[in-house]
Specification:
Blueprint: E1 22-30, H1 36-57, E2 60-68
Parallel strand pairs: 1-2
Length: about 70
């Protein structure tokens, strides 16, 4: 059975901003073997930091996360 192709005349874009303030935030972490015991803790702390920024500043946060091999 062949998949049915879906076509759209118009796809509305979602709103870009909800707040007046917008912050671009990037985290980069060393993910080599020697850092193994620290990675989970770092991820949890990053989540807390982002949640606190959003709660206090009432702004939108664009988040990027990268790992160094």
């Amino acid at each position: 059975m062949e998949a049915e192709k879906v076509e759209y005349d118009h796809v509305p874009k979602p709103p870009v901003k909800k707040h007046d303030m917008s912050l671009d935030l990037a985290f980069v972490m060393d993910a080599t073997g020697s850092m193994g015991s620290y990675i989970e803790s770092a991820k949890n702390n990053i989540s807390k930091i982002v949640e606190e920024i959003v709660a206090i500043e009432k702004g939108d946060v664009c988040l990027a996360f990268g790992e160094l091999p």
